[in-house]
Amino acid sequence: MRKWDNPWLWGVFVLASLILLAFAMPATAVVDNPVQLSSHSLWVGEKKKVIEVSTEDGEHLLEIPASHLEDISVDNYRGVIWVGTRKEIIQYSLTGEEVFRYALNIKDDCKGDNCGERVVHISLD
Q1: Could you tell me where the DSSP H helices lie in the chain?
Q2: What is the pLDDT of residue 110?
Q3: Which residues pair with 44 in a beta bridge?
Q4: Neighbouring-strand partners of residue 88
Q5: Torsion angle defined by CA atoms of residues 63, 69, 73 and 78, in that order, rounded to the nearest 10 degrees
Q6: Does an H or E element contain 5, and which?
Q7: Rg for the chain (alpha carbons), in Å?
Q8: Dihedral sign, CA of 110, 113, 115, 119?
């Protein structure tokens, strides 16, 4: 019997080939509900609102009211917008619907619209 006529050797060869092929395949993320996002938007945080602006024609696509706005973050992976105010952090869908609200326990001596130092910062993982 020749060396390659052994079925056991063929089995080991096929198994090793499959293992090498599995490691050579590019990794892809599995997402249950992928969000289709437009790459033609600019999100702007103003003092009392967050605005989605079209970068193609400058048209206002969406406006979210937010008093005493401190910070915004757009999470393209999850398809949400995080808005930080002096009193809370709010999560909105890309259509402007409120999803989540978290009240902050910050002693705020701010009175009026000119409050000086920022007290809220948002960072995403």
Answers
A1: 7-24
A2: 63
A3: 51
A4: 103
A5: -60
A6: none
A7: 26
A8: positive
> pLDDT 10s per residue in the chain (125 long)?
566 566 766 677 777 777 766 666 665 544 455 445 556 789 998 888 999 999 999 999 999 999 888 889 998 888 899 999 888 999 999 899 999 999 988 766 666 555 666 667 777 76
CA distance 120 to 104: 9
Q: Output the six-digit token pair for 2.
A: 């020749």
Tokens at 112, concatenated: 């009026």
Rounded to whole angstroms, the Cα distance separating 43 from 87 reads 21
What pLDDT sits at residue 114? 56
Which region, left, alpha or beta, applies to residue 79 given φ > 0 means left and ψ of -120 to 50 means alpha? left
* Token pair recorded at residue 106: 């910050």
Q: Which amino acid is located at 53 in the chain? A: V
Query: In the 8-state DSSP scheme, what is residue 91?
Result: E
Counted residue by residue, the chain has a size of 125
Given the structure tokens 């910070």, which residue do they identify?
71
